[in-house]
Amino acid sequence: MPGLSMRQFRAILKKDIVMELRTKEMITSMGLYAILTMVVYQVALAEAGENFDVRLVMPGLIWVAFIFMSMLGLNRSFVHEKDQGCLDALLLAPIDRPVIFLSKSVGNLLFLLVVEALSLPVFAFLFLQGKEGIGNPIWMIALVLFGASIGIAGVGTLLATISVNTSGKDIMLAVLFVPLEYPLLRAAVGATFAAVIGGPGTMTAFWGWMAWIAAFDVIMVAVAYGLYEFVIGA
Amino acid sequence: MKKRSMLAEIMLVLGGIITTVALLMAFFWAPASLYPDGRVDFAQKIFYFHVPVAEASFLVFVFTAYYGIRFLMTKRREYDTKAKIATEVTLFFVLLTMATGILWTRVEWNVWWQWEPRLTTYFIMTLLVIGYFVLRNSVEDEEKRATYAAAFGILAFIDAPISFLITRFVQSTHPVVFKSGGLETPMLVTFIIAQVGMIMLGYAFYQLRLQQEQLRERLDALKISVGG
After folding, report:
1. ipTM for the predicted complex
2. pLDDT in tens, A93-142
3. pTM for the full model?
4. Domain span at residue A16?
5. Residue B88 burial by CB count (10 A; 0-12/13-18/19+): exposed, middle or buried?
6. A212 CB within 8 Å of a chain B CB
7. Which chain B positions have a beta carbon within 8 Å of A162's beta carbon?
8. Count of A–B CB contacts within 8 Å?
Protein backbone atom coordinates (compact mmCIF):
# COMPACT_ATOMS: atom_id res chain seq x y z
CA MET A 1 0.00 0.00 0.00
CA PRO A 2 2.59 2.60 -0.93
CA GLY A 3 -0.17 5.03 -1.96
CA LEU A 4 -1.86 4.82 1.43
CA SER A 5 1.45 5.16 3.28
CA MET A 6 2.24 8.23 1.22
CA ARG A 7 -1.09 9.81 2.16
CA GLN A 8 -0.53 9.01 5.83
CA PHE A 9 2.97 10.47 5.62
CA ARG A 10 1.62 13.67 4.07
CA ALA A 11 -1.20 13.90 6.61
CA ILE A 12 1.14 13.73 9.63
CA LEU A 13 3.61 16.13 8.05
CA LYS A 14 0.82 18.55 7.18
CA LYS A 15 -0.52 18.39 10.73
CA ASP A 16 2.91 19.39 12.08
CA ILE A 17 3.32 22.20 9.58
CA VAL A 18 -0.19 23.58 10.10
CA MET A 19 0.28 23.47 13.86
CA GLU A 20 3.58 25.29 13.52
CA LEU A 21 2.12 27.91 11.20
CA ARG A 22 -0.65 28.59 13.72
CA THR A 23 1.41 28.65 16.90
CA LYS A 24 4.83 29.55 15.41
CA GLU A 25 6.15 28.07 18.61
CA MET A 26 9.09 25.97 17.39
CA ILE A 27 10.46 28.50 14.90
CA THR A 28 10.29 31.40 17.34
CA SER A 29 11.75 29.50 20.28
CA MET A 30 14.55 27.98 18.18
CA GLY A 31 15.28 31.27 16.42
CA LEU A 32 15.34 33.21 19.67
CA TYR A 33 17.60 30.59 21.14
CA ALA A 34 20.00 30.98 18.20
CA ILE A 35 20.08 34.78 18.61
CA LEU A 36 20.65 34.47 22.35
CA THR A 37 23.53 32.09 21.66
CA MET A 38 25.08 34.78 19.47
CA VAL A 39 24.85 37.28 22.32
CA VAL A 40 26.74 34.74 24.41
CA TYR A 41 29.32 34.44 21.62
CA GLN A 42 29.82 38.20 21.69
CA VAL A 43 30.63 37.87 25.39
CA ALA A 44 32.86 34.87 24.74
CA LEU A 45 34.86 36.75 22.09
CA ALA A 46 34.77 40.13 23.88
CA GLU A 47 38.44 40.09 24.85
CA ALA A 48 39.72 38.40 21.70
CA GLY A 49 40.70 41.70 20.07
CA GLU A 50 40.00 43.39 16.75
CA ASN A 51 42.43 41.39 14.63
CA PHE A 52 41.05 38.04 15.72
CA ASP A 53 39.96 36.07 12.64
CA VAL A 54 36.38 35.03 13.45
CA ARG A 55 36.34 32.73 10.43
CA LEU A 56 38.62 30.30 12.28
CA VAL A 57 36.06 29.65 14.99
CA MET A 58 32.92 30.37 12.98
CA PRO A 59 32.24 26.74 11.92
CA GLY A 60 32.45 25.61 15.53
CA LEU A 61 30.29 28.47 16.77
CA ILE A 62 27.48 27.93 14.30
CA TRP A 63 27.37 24.18 14.94
CA VAL A 64 27.29 24.72 18.69
CA ALA A 65 24.30 26.99 18.17
CA PHE A 66 22.61 24.53 15.82
CA ILE A 67 23.13 21.48 17.99
CA PHE A 68 21.60 23.08 21.06
CA MET A 69 18.86 24.69 19.04
CA SER A 70 17.98 21.36 17.43
CA MET A 71 17.70 19.67 20.82
CA LEU A 72 15.24 22.33 21.87
CA GLY A 73 13.18 21.76 18.72
CA LEU A 74 13.32 17.96 18.86
CA ASN A 75 12.14 17.95 22.43
CA ARG A 76 9.29 20.34 21.65
CA SER A 77 8.12 18.27 18.72
CA PHE A 78 7.38 15.32 21.01
CA VAL A 79 6.38 17.07 24.21
CA HIS A 80 3.42 18.43 22.25
CA GLU A 81 2.47 15.05 20.90
CA LYS A 82 2.64 13.53 24.33
CA ASP A 83 0.92 16.23 26.39
CA GLN A 84 -2.07 16.49 24.12
CA GLY A 85 -2.40 12.74 23.67
CA CYS A 86 -1.69 13.00 19.95
CA LEU A 87 0.96 10.30 20.07
CA ASP A 88 -1.49 7.79 21.54
CA ALA A 89 -3.97 8.60 18.82
CA LEU A 90 -1.30 8.15 16.15
CA LEU A 91 -0.43 4.77 17.60
CA LEU A 92 -4.09 3.70 17.72
CA ALA A 93 -4.59 4.64 14.07
CA PRO A 94 -3.68 1.92 11.56
CA ILE A 95 -0.46 3.60 10.46
CA ASP A 96 2.82 1.78 9.88
CA ARG A 97 5.35 2.83 12.53
CA PRO A 98 8.05 3.66 9.95
CA VAL A 99 5.64 6.16 8.39
CA ILE A 100 5.42 7.97 11.73
CA PHE A 101 9.20 8.02 11.95
CA LEU A 102 9.65 9.38 8.43
CA SER A 103 7.00 12.09 8.73
CA LYS A 104 8.22 13.28 12.13
CA SER A 105 11.85 13.30 10.93
CA VAL A 106 11.02 15.20 7.77
CA GLY A 107 9.00 17.71 9.80
CA ASN A 108 11.90 18.19 12.21
CA LEU A 109 14.31 18.49 9.29
CA LEU A 110 12.19 21.21 7.69
CA PHE A 111 11.96 23.30 10.87
CA LEU A 112 15.67 22.85 11.50
CA LEU A 113 16.59 23.98 7.98
CA VAL A 114 14.31 27.02 8.19
CA VAL A 115 15.85 28.20 11.45
CA GLU A 116 19.38 27.49 10.21
CA ALA A 117 18.75 29.42 7.01
CA LEU A 118 17.40 32.34 9.04
CA SER A 119 20.09 32.42 11.70
CA LEU A 120 23.14 32.02 9.46
CA PRO A 121 22.70 35.48 7.81
CA VAL A 122 22.19 36.92 11.29
CA PHE A 123 25.51 35.41 12.33
CA ALA A 124 27.21 36.87 9.24
CA PHE A 125 25.58 40.26 9.91
CA LEU A 126 26.75 40.32 13.52
CA PHE A 127 30.22 38.84 13.24
CA LEU A 128 31.54 38.92 9.68
CA GLN A 129 30.96 42.54 8.60
CA GLY A 130 34.12 44.30 7.53
CA LYS A 131 36.06 41.04 7.80
CA GLU A 132 37.36 38.76 5.12
CA GLY A 133 34.50 37.08 3.28
CA ILE A 134 33.67 33.43 2.77
CA GLY A 135 36.40 31.76 0.70
CA ASN A 136 34.34 29.25 -1.24
CA PRO A 137 30.91 29.49 -2.92
CA ILE A 138 27.95 29.75 -0.56
CA TRP A 139 26.22 26.61 -1.87
CA MET A 140 28.87 24.56 -0.12
CA ILE A 141 27.69 25.80 3.27
CA ALA A 142 24.11 25.08 2.25
CA LEU A 143 25.11 21.53 1.34
CA VAL A 144 26.72 20.97 4.75
CA LEU A 145 23.65 22.33 6.51
CA PHE A 146 21.39 20.04 4.55
CA GLY A 147 23.54 16.92 4.93
CA ALA A 148 24.20 17.31 8.65
CA SER A 149 20.60 18.28 9.43
CA ILE A 150 19.41 14.94 8.01
CA GLY A 151 21.53 13.10 10.56
CA ILE A 152 20.43 15.42 13.36
CA ALA A 153 16.73 15.11 12.53
CA GLY A 154 16.81 11.36 11.83
CA VAL A 155 18.70 10.18 14.91
CA GLY A 156 17.20 13.02 16.97
CA THR A 157 13.64 11.92 16.23
CA LEU A 158 14.34 8.47 17.65
CA LEU A 159 16.14 9.86 20.70
CA ALA A 160 13.42 12.44 21.35
CA THR A 161 10.82 9.67 21.28
CA ILE A 162 12.85 7.89 23.94
CA SER A 163 13.64 10.93 26.08
CA VAL A 164 10.06 12.23 26.15
CA ASN A 165 9.10 9.03 27.97
CA THR A 166 11.80 9.36 30.64
CA SER A 167 11.76 11.35 33.83
CA GLY A 168 14.67 13.55 32.71
CA LYS A 169 13.22 14.73 29.33
CA ASP A 170 15.45 17.68 28.22
CA ILE A 171 18.60 16.62 29.99
CA MET A 172 18.10 13.01 28.91
CA LEU A 173 17.97 14.07 25.26
CA ALA A 174 21.28 15.93 25.66
CA VAL A 175 22.95 12.97 27.41
CA LEU A 176 22.00 10.59 24.59
CA PHE A 177 22.15 13.01 21.66
CA VAL A 178 25.48 14.82 21.99
CA PRO A 179 27.82 11.81 22.15
CA LEU A 180 25.89 9.96 19.43
CA GLU A 181 26.08 12.96 17.11
CA TYR A 182 29.77 13.53 17.75
CA PRO A 183 31.06 12.08 14.45
CA LEU A 184 28.47 14.03 12.48
CA LEU A 185 29.31 17.28 14.26
CA ARG A 186 33.02 16.76 13.75
CA ALA A 187 32.49 16.24 10.02
CA ALA A 188 30.09 19.18 9.80
CA VAL A 189 32.61 21.52 11.41
CA GLY A 190 35.35 20.17 9.12
CA ALA A 191 33.28 20.69 6.00
CA THR A 192 32.06 24.14 7.07
CA PHE A 193 35.64 25.14 7.83
CA ALA A 194 36.76 24.08 4.35
CA ALA A 195 33.88 26.06 2.83
CA VAL A 196 34.53 29.19 4.90
CA ILE A 197 38.31 29.41 4.56
CA GLY A 198 38.64 28.57 0.88
CA GLY A 199 41.89 28.40 -1.05
CA PRO A 200 43.83 25.49 -2.54
CA GLY A 201 43.17 22.03 -1.17
CA THR A 202 39.97 22.95 0.63
CA MET A 203 37.78 21.35 -2.04
CA THR A 204 39.34 17.92 -1.41
CA ALA A 205 38.93 18.34 2.35
CA PHE A 206 35.36 19.49 1.85
CA TRP A 207 34.33 16.43 -0.15
CA GLY A 208 36.16 14.18 2.29
CA TRP A 209 34.11 15.53 5.18
CA MET A 210 30.93 15.44 3.11
CA ALA A 211 31.52 11.74 2.47
CA TRP A 212 31.65 11.22 6.25
CA ILE A 213 28.42 13.14 6.68
CA ALA A 214 26.76 11.04 3.98
CA ALA A 215 28.02 7.81 5.56
CA PHE A 216 26.74 8.84 9.00
CA ASP A 217 23.37 9.82 7.54
CA VAL A 218 22.93 6.55 5.68
CA ILE A 219 24.06 4.24 8.49
CA MET A 220 22.66 5.97 11.55
CA VAL A 221 19.34 7.04 10.05
CA ALA A 222 18.81 3.52 8.68
CA VAL A 223 19.44 2.06 12.15
CA ALA A 224 17.19 4.66 13.78
CA TYR A 225 14.52 3.82 11.21
CA GLY A 226 14.81 0.13 12.00
CA LEU A 227 14.68 0.66 15.77
CA TYR A 228 11.80 3.11 15.74
CA GLU A 229 9.09 0.50 15.57
CA PHE A 230 10.31 -1.11 18.80
CA VAL A 231 10.83 2.17 20.61
CA ILE A 232 7.49 3.76 19.84
CA GLY A 233 5.62 0.56 20.58
CA ALA A 234 7.15 0.10 24.03
CA MET B 1 23.66 -23.87 36.97
CA LYS B 2 26.14 -25.22 39.50
CA LYS B 3 28.70 -26.14 36.85
CA ARG B 4 28.57 -22.75 35.16
CA SER B 5 29.08 -21.02 38.46
CA MET B 6 32.27 -23.03 39.04
CA LEU B 7 33.58 -22.13 35.58
CA ALA B 8 33.17 -18.43 36.31
CA GLU B 9 35.07 -18.80 39.58
CA ILE B 10 37.85 -20.79 37.94
CA MET B 11 38.14 -18.13 35.24
CA LEU B 12 38.29 -15.42 37.91
CA VAL B 13 41.20 -17.07 39.72
CA LEU B 14 43.01 -18.06 36.52
CA GLY B 15 42.52 -14.62 34.96
CA GLY B 16 43.84 -13.00 38.13
CA ILE B 17 46.94 -15.22 38.13
CA ILE B 18 47.58 -14.80 34.40
CA THR B 19 47.30 -11.00 34.41
CA THR B 20 49.59 -10.88 37.45
CA VAL B 21 52.12 -13.14 35.72
CA ALA B 22 51.92 -10.98 32.61
CA LEU B 23 52.59 -7.89 34.72
CA LEU B 24 55.65 -9.57 36.28
CA MET B 25 56.82 -10.64 32.82
CA ALA B 26 56.40 -7.09 31.61
CA PHE B 27 58.82 -5.83 34.24
CA PHE B 28 61.31 -8.72 34.47
CA TRP B 29 61.30 -10.41 31.08
CA ALA B 30 60.08 -8.18 28.27
CA PRO B 31 62.87 -5.89 27.04
CA ALA B 32 62.59 -2.20 27.77
CA SER B 33 61.35 -0.04 24.96
CA LEU B 34 63.76 2.71 23.91
CA TYR B 35 63.21 6.26 22.72
CA PRO B 36 64.82 7.16 19.39
CA ASP B 37 67.67 8.82 21.31
CA GLY B 38 68.42 5.61 23.27
CA ARG B 39 66.87 6.48 26.66
CA VAL B 40 64.74 3.81 28.35
CA ASP B 41 61.00 4.37 27.96
CA PHE B 42 59.84 2.99 31.30
CA ALA B 43 56.30 4.34 30.93
CA GLN B 44 55.79 1.93 28.04
CA LYS B 45 55.27 -0.85 30.65
CA ILE B 46 51.73 0.38 31.18
CA PHE B 47 51.04 -0.85 27.65
CA TYR B 48 50.74 -4.43 29.02
CA PHE B 49 47.78 -3.35 31.13
CA HIS B 50 46.26 -0.44 29.23
CA VAL B 51 45.87 -2.08 25.82
CA PRO B 52 44.43 -5.43 27.04
CA VAL B 53 41.88 -3.58 29.16
CA ALA B 54 40.95 -1.30 26.26
CA GLU B 55 40.50 -4.23 23.89
CA ALA B 56 38.51 -6.18 26.47
CA SER B 57 36.21 -3.16 26.81
CA PHE B 58 35.41 -3.26 23.08
CA LEU B 59 34.88 -7.00 23.21
CA VAL B 60 32.39 -6.81 26.08
CA PHE B 61 30.61 -3.88 24.44
CA VAL B 62 29.79 -6.19 21.51
CA PHE B 63 27.55 -8.14 23.89
CA THR B 64 25.61 -5.01 24.84
CA ALA B 65 24.52 -4.71 21.22
CA TYR B 66 24.13 -8.46 20.72
CA TYR B 67 21.84 -8.97 23.71
CA GLY B 68 20.07 -5.72 22.83
CA ILE B 69 19.15 -7.21 19.46
CA ARG B 70 18.17 -10.50 21.07
CA PHE B 71 15.93 -8.64 23.50
CA LEU B 72 14.17 -6.67 20.77
CA MET B 73 13.55 -9.86 18.81
CA THR B 74 12.23 -11.93 21.72
CA LYS B 75 11.16 -9.41 24.41
CA ARG B 76 12.58 -11.80 26.98
CA ARG B 77 13.75 -10.18 30.17
CA GLU B 78 16.84 -12.34 30.59
CA TYR B 79 18.44 -10.71 27.52
CA ASP B 80 17.89 -7.28 28.98
CA THR B 81 19.63 -8.38 32.17
CA LYS B 82 22.51 -9.79 30.12
CA ALA B 83 22.84 -6.59 28.09
CA LYS B 84 22.84 -4.54 31.27
CA ILE B 85 25.55 -6.66 32.90
CA ALA B 86 27.67 -6.59 29.73
CA THR B 87 27.46 -2.79 29.75
CA GLU B 88 28.39 -2.72 33.44
CA VAL B 89 31.55 -4.71 32.70
CA THR B 90 32.23 -2.41 29.74
CA LEU B 91 31.95 0.62 32.00
CA PHE B 92 34.39 -0.94 34.46
CA PHE B 93 36.96 -1.65 31.73
CA VAL B 94 36.41 1.74 30.10
CA LEU B 95 37.12 3.55 33.35
CA LEU B 96 40.28 1.47 33.89
CA THR B 97 41.43 2.28 30.34
CA MET B 98 40.79 5.97 30.91
CA ALA B 99 42.66 5.98 34.23
CA THR B 100 45.73 4.16 32.89
CA GLY B 101 45.68 6.16 29.64
CA ILE B 102 45.70 9.44 31.51
CA LEU B 103 48.68 8.33 33.60
CA TRP B 104 50.55 7.43 30.45
CA THR B 105 49.79 10.71 28.65
CA ARG B 106 51.02 12.64 31.68
CA VAL B 107 54.41 10.91 31.52
CA GLU B 108 54.76 10.69 27.77
CA TRP B 109 53.16 13.90 26.50
CA ASN B 110 53.55 15.96 29.67
CA VAL B 111 49.82 16.69 29.89
CA TRP B 112 46.99 14.89 31.67
CA TRP B 113 44.64 15.34 28.79
CA GLN B 114 44.88 16.27 25.15
CA TRP B 115 42.09 16.41 22.56
CA GLU B 116 43.89 13.87 20.50
CA PRO B 117 41.70 11.76 18.15
CA ARG B 118 42.01 8.47 20.00
CA LEU B 119 41.45 10.06 23.39
CA THR B 120 38.54 12.08 22.09
CA THR B 121 36.74 9.09 20.65
CA TYR B 122 37.35 6.95 23.71
CA PHE B 123 35.95 9.79 25.81
CA ILE B 124 32.85 9.77 23.56
CA MET B 125 32.53 6.03 24.09
CA THR B 126 32.77 6.55 27.86
CA LEU B 127 29.96 9.09 27.64
CA LEU B 128 27.84 6.69 25.59
CA VAL B 129 28.28 3.94 28.18
CA ILE B 130 27.49 6.33 31.04
CA GLY B 131 24.49 7.63 29.04
CA TYR B 132 23.20 4.05 28.83
CA PHE B 133 22.92 3.89 32.62
CA VAL B 134 21.55 7.41 32.98
CA LEU B 135 18.83 6.33 30.55
CA ARG B 136 18.08 3.13 32.43
CA ASN B 137 17.77 4.97 35.71
CA SER B 138 15.23 7.44 34.42
CA VAL B 139 12.64 5.00 33.08
CA GLU B 140 10.22 3.47 35.59
CA ASP B 141 8.39 0.96 33.42
CA GLU B 142 10.39 -2.24 33.08
CA GLU B 143 9.59 -3.09 29.47
CA LYS B 144 10.11 0.49 28.29
CA ARG B 145 13.42 0.64 30.12
CA ALA B 146 14.61 -2.56 28.50
CA THR B 147 13.52 -1.50 24.99
CA TYR B 148 15.04 1.98 25.20
CA ALA B 149 18.26 0.62 26.65
CA ALA B 150 18.48 -1.99 23.88
CA ALA B 151 17.89 0.63 21.17
CA PHE B 152 20.44 3.01 22.63
CA GLY B 153 22.95 0.21 23.16
CA ILE B 154 22.72 -0.77 19.50
CA LEU B 155 23.02 2.85 18.31
CA ALA B 156 25.99 3.45 20.60
CA PHE B 157 27.70 0.28 19.40
CA ILE B 158 27.41 1.40 15.76
CA ASP B 159 28.34 4.99 16.55
CA ALA B 160 31.56 4.18 18.42
CA PRO B 161 33.41 2.71 15.39
CA ILE B 162 32.32 5.68 13.24
CA SER B 163 33.88 7.97 15.84
CA PHE B 164 37.07 5.94 15.77
CA LEU B 165 37.26 5.93 11.99
CA ILE B 166 36.47 9.60 11.56
CA THR B 167 39.32 10.64 13.80
CA ARG B 168 41.66 8.48 11.75
CA PHE B 169 40.88 11.00 9.03
CA VAL B 170 42.78 13.54 11.13
CA GLN B 171 46.43 13.23 12.18
CA SER B 172 46.87 11.24 15.40
CA THR B 173 49.81 11.13 17.81
CA HIS B 174 48.49 8.11 19.72
CA PRO B 175 50.78 5.12 19.08
CA VAL B 176 49.50 2.49 16.68
CA VAL B 177 50.71 -0.76 18.20
CA PHE B 178 50.43 -3.32 15.47
CA LYS B 179 52.00 -1.58 12.52
CA SER B 180 54.55 -3.57 10.53
CA GLY B 181 57.32 -4.98 12.71
CA GLY B 182 56.12 -3.07 15.79
CA LEU B 183 56.88 -5.47 18.62
CA GLU B 184 59.73 -7.78 19.57
CA THR B 185 58.69 -11.38 20.30
CA PRO B 186 59.01 -11.27 24.15
CA MET B 187 56.94 -8.09 24.16
CA LEU B 188 54.30 -9.66 21.95
CA VAL B 189 54.16 -12.84 24.08
CA THR B 190 53.77 -10.82 27.29
CA PHE B 191 51.07 -8.76 25.67
CA ILE B 192 49.13 -11.78 24.43
CA ILE B 193 49.25 -13.42 27.87
CA ALA B 194 47.99 -10.21 29.47
CA GLN B 195 45.23 -10.01 26.86
CA VAL B 196 44.10 -13.60 27.45
CA GLY B 197 44.06 -13.05 31.22
CA MET B 198 42.05 -9.87 30.82
CA ILE B 199 39.44 -11.55 28.63
CA MET B 200 39.12 -14.35 31.21
CA LEU B 201 38.59 -11.75 33.91
CA GLY B 202 35.99 -10.05 31.74
CA TYR B 203 34.14 -13.32 31.32
CA ALA B 204 34.32 -14.04 35.06
CA PHE B 205 33.07 -10.56 36.02
CA TYR B 206 30.23 -10.92 33.56
CA GLN B 207 29.15 -14.38 34.71
CA LEU B 208 29.43 -13.72 38.43
CA ARG B 209 27.59 -10.42 38.20
CA LEU B 210 24.93 -12.08 36.05
CA GLN B 211 24.39 -14.87 38.58
CA GLN B 212 24.10 -12.29 41.34
CA GLU B 213 21.56 -10.31 39.34
CA GLN B 214 19.53 -13.41 38.43
CA LEU B 215 19.47 -14.38 42.09
CA ARG B 216 18.23 -10.92 42.98
CA GLU B 217 15.48 -11.16 40.37
CA ARG B 218 14.37 -14.53 41.75
CA LEU B 219 14.36 -13.11 45.23
CA ASP B 220 12.21 -10.17 44.11
CA ALA B 221 9.78 -12.55 42.42
CA LEU B 222 9.62 -14.67 45.59
CA LYS B 223 8.97 -11.61 47.73
CA ILE B 224 6.04 -10.65 45.52
CA SER B 225 4.61 -14.20 45.51
CA VAL B 226 4.83 -14.33 49.31
CA GLY B 227 2.97 -11.05 49.44
CA GLY B 228 5.65 -8.62 50.54
Report:
1. 0.89
2. 888 888 999 999 999 999 999 999 999 988 888 888 777 777 778 889 99
3. 0.89
4. 2-233
5. buried
6. yes
7. 135, 148, 151-152
8. 83
